[in-house]
Amino acid sequence: MQSQWRTLSSSRTINGDDSILPVLIVGAGPVGLTLSALLTKLGVKCAVLEKSGSFSKHPQAHFINNRSMEVFRKLDGLAEEIQRSQPPVDFWRKFIYYYDRVVSPVSVVHFSQYKLTRLLLKHLESLGFHVQCGEGLESLSGSKILMGHECISIDTRANSVNVTASFLKEGKYMKKDIQCGILVGTDGAGSTVRRLVGINMRGERNLQNLVSVHFLSQELGQYLMNERPGMLFFIFNTDAIGVLVAHDLDQGEFVLQMPFYPPQQKFEDFSSEVSVLAGVLFSCEILLEMCERLIYKLVGRNLADMDVIDIKPWVMHAEVVEKYVSCDSRVILAGDAAHRFPPAGGFGMNTGIQDVHNLAWKLASVVNGIAPPSILSTYEMERMPIANFNTALSLENFRAAMAVPAALGLDPTIANTVHQVINNTVGSILPSKVQRSILDGLFAIGRAQLSDFILNKNNPLGSSRLAEVRRIFEEGKSLQLQFPAEDLGFRYLRGAVVPDSDRMEEPNAPTGRRRDYVPSADPGSRLPHMCIRELSKPHSETFLKERCSFRIVGGILTQMFLQEMVSTLDLVSGDKVEFLLIIAPVESSYRLAQAAFEVAQDFNASMKVCVMWPDGTVDAVARSKAALTPWDNYIDVVEVRQSATLKSWWDLCQMTHRGAILVRPDEHIAWRVKSRVVDDFASEMKKVFSTALGFDSI
Ligand SMILES: Cc1cc2nc3c(=O)[nH]c(=O)nc-3n(C[C@H](O)[C@H](O)[C@H](O)COP(=O)(O)OP(=O)(O)OC[C@H]3O[C@@H](n4cnc5c(N)ncnc54)[C@H](O)[C@@H]3O)c2cc1C
Question: 5 falls in which pLDDT band (50, 70, 90)?
Answer without folding.
Answer: very low
